[in-house]
Write a structure and sequence with these properties.
This protein is α/β, with parallel strands linked by helices. It contains 13 helices and ten strands.
Length: about 325
């Protein structure tokens, strides 16, 4: 069976895709480094072959017909899939940097202060860290040139391998200055809404107030008092945990802390844990954890990052668990 995708048709489709994205033959020509007349002619040949128009031409812009919209949608999906496959198959250049995508708050609060140790251990490996929290799949990682990623979530990646290297514990935190400024010792049940500091989304796909709600349900298993329930929905909101914690450090209220991000401040006395759970402890194991996410056929260097993260996490866990043993008891 002879394929309809002959070289001429593929060339016409390439010009059509560029024109459809730009809505202009002139801009498409600049993108493809050919003349405007060549783009217009190749699109016209595609329309003649299809026996139907793909654009409505006007002096100001090109407008896709319904058939043009349908064809362009199929082309975009096909080209994106082809690009992802090519990027996945292409071997990295020798000595190319390894790019690690990392949840921003974790990158700032835990990873970056420890990176000096990684570079001392691996002087020949160039590691670049990008702070971002978008959801990932294999195609997106390939398109963005990501060798691996650190994500804070419950896991469950369909086409990537994720290895948990650090679990997380949740506890409300505030500054000593905020506590001292309260006219009476603060009570969890009567906190004003503006005193609760929120990370709007703990991880991609998390529900509203995910971490606050999990901790509060363990603190008040019989149900949340009205003031506290109202505070969950009002409060002060941020799009990064690190911003909510910065507000807590500045004495603006109580933030839900993650042990990995607040342990140094707790140890130094810059933050305190003012409230307790129903069982008398202060911290609760969270649903999410920190995971290294990478394709099964990860590029060289990812295994070194995985081993280093594991060793750093083990050291931190010893410090964290010693603090929990002193404070997380009735």
């Amino acid at each position: 069976m002879t394929s309809a995708l002959n070289p001429s048709l593929l060339s016409w489709l390439r010009c059509f895709d560029a024109a459809a994205r730009a809505r202009s033959f002139t801009q498409a020509a600049a993108t493809l480094c050919i003349t405007q007349g060549a783009v217009s002619q190749q699109v016209k040949q595609l329309e003649q072959w299809l026996r139907r128009p793909l654009f409505l031409r006007s002096p100001r812009a090109l407008v896709l017909t319904p058939e043009g919209l349908r064809l362009h949608g199929v082309l975009r999906e096909s080209f994106d899939a082809l690009e992802a496959a090519l990027l996945q198959l292409r071997a990295p250049a020798e000595g190319a940097p390894l790019t690690l995508s990392c949840a921003p708050s974790f990158a700032m609060g835990w990873l970056t202060p420890r990176l000096g140790d990684f570079f001392r251990q691996h002087p020949g490996l160039e590691l670049r860290v990008l702070g971002e929290f978008e959801s990932l799949d294999r195609a997106r990682m390939a398109q963005r040139g990501l060798a691996a990623a650190v994500r804070y979530d419950p896991g469950g990646y369909a086409d990537l391998q994720d290895s948990l290297f650090l679990d997380e514990w949740l506890l409300p935190v505030a500054s000593p200055a905020w506590l001292a400024a309260q006219p009476q010792p603060p009570q969890l049940d009567t906190l004003a809404p503006e005193q609760l500091l929120h990370d709007d989304q703990a991880w991609d796909g998390a529900g509203p107030h995910e971490e606050w709600l999990q901790w509060l349900q363990a603190a008040r298993p019989a149900g949340l008092p009205p003031a506290l329930a109202q505070g969950l929905h009002l409060g002060r909101h941020f799009n990064l945990t690190q911003l909510a914690l910065a507000a807590a450090l500045a004495g603006q209220g109580v933030a839900m802390g993650r042990a990995a991000l607040v342990m140094d401040d707790l140890a130094a006395g810059r933050l305190v844990a003012p409230f307790r759970l129903a069982d008398g402890g202060v911290a609760l194991r969270g649903r999410a954890a920190y995971r290294l996410v990478a394709p099964a056929d990860a590029v060289p260097g990812v295994e070194a990052v995985r081993a280093w993260l594991g060793a750093q996490a083990a050291s931190f866990i010893r410090q964290r668990d010693a603090w929990l043993a002193r404070h997380n008891t009735p």
